[in-house]
């Protein structure tokens, strides 16, 4: 009985640039990255930032304008798509409508030099892996969207590629199904130890499935890190704003001692990791859940007036007017005594605020 295995390999970009045709602005501008074998890495960013172009360059469906691409340490920069050991799952599934599920999965294997028996067994193992063992004789039109996507995943898996690419695989599914299929993809990836590069513009999806996220903006990498790093320590205003919500403040770094900085934000005094910043004006990002509302006039806090309190079931949302504009605060404590119109203070717990670049 055939078993689907992983031939997972690393992916590396060295100063890769892509300029399409006669356009002057690069779609991808001098990016370098390294994706470890066996990891699921997401390319995340707004429309037009260069995610799909990056994915297609790994597949060999687009050629680089300059730079180098390595898969498993081997230079594949000039190799055509057919000579790269990479499979891609598209958002449209791209199943053949006149072929059964089994025939669809077997189709790609036919070109890979496998014998009839091996092909049949691999297709069966692939369909089992995605939980569709009993659907082999159906046509794609007799399946739900989620099931069709699983067929597309099986078809890519049976080739045992070094790298598996997903281009917005869930965008045609409704919200509930999206959550389930993304968990299935993650489970299979972890079970087999596959290298997966996954494109999405949905930040929640990226946070949920990824070992690492590469955030792209305007053809460059804005930040590369684990979901937790990106959320808790955004490097710049773009990432702070794109992943989750953030309050952004103009502040003043008054001194730096070793790795620590003393920061003034109006009357509030904060001790923060310096993150390479020097003394002078700086920018600060704080997640709404990392601020705390308290009685007015507490030392070291930011004074303000409570403008709005909104109950949203699982938590409370506060809007506070301050000298820095409106500040958004979330509290899990829904039994608050604070009322709109009253003076309050905003406290900055340790590990909440982070210094960022523009
Ligand atoms: P989306 O989320 O909308 O798919 P994306 O982040 O995947 O966006 P890309 O599709 O990689 O972005 O596009 C990056 C830039 O390159 C965009 O400005 C786009 O218009 C341009 N571009 C993409 N494909 C081509 C092409 N075949 N010819 C010319 N320009 C292109």
From TrEMBL:
| Molecular-function annotations in GO | ABC-type transporter activity; ATP binding; ATP hydrolysis activity
The similarity comment for this entry is: Belongs to the ABC transporter superfamily.
Q: Which residues form the ABC transporter domain?
A: 11-243
Topology relative to the membrane: Peripheral membrane protein
Any keyword Cell membrane? no
Q: Where mainly found?
A: membrane
Ordered alphabetically, the record's keywords are: ATP-binding, Nucleotide-binding, Transport
Q: Name one Pfam family in it.
A: ABC_tran
**Location(s) in or outside the cell:** Cell inner membrane
User: Is this entry keyworded Cytoplasm?
Assistant: no
GO CC terms on record?
ATP-binding cassette (ABC) transporter complex
Name of the protein: ABC transporter ATP-binding protein
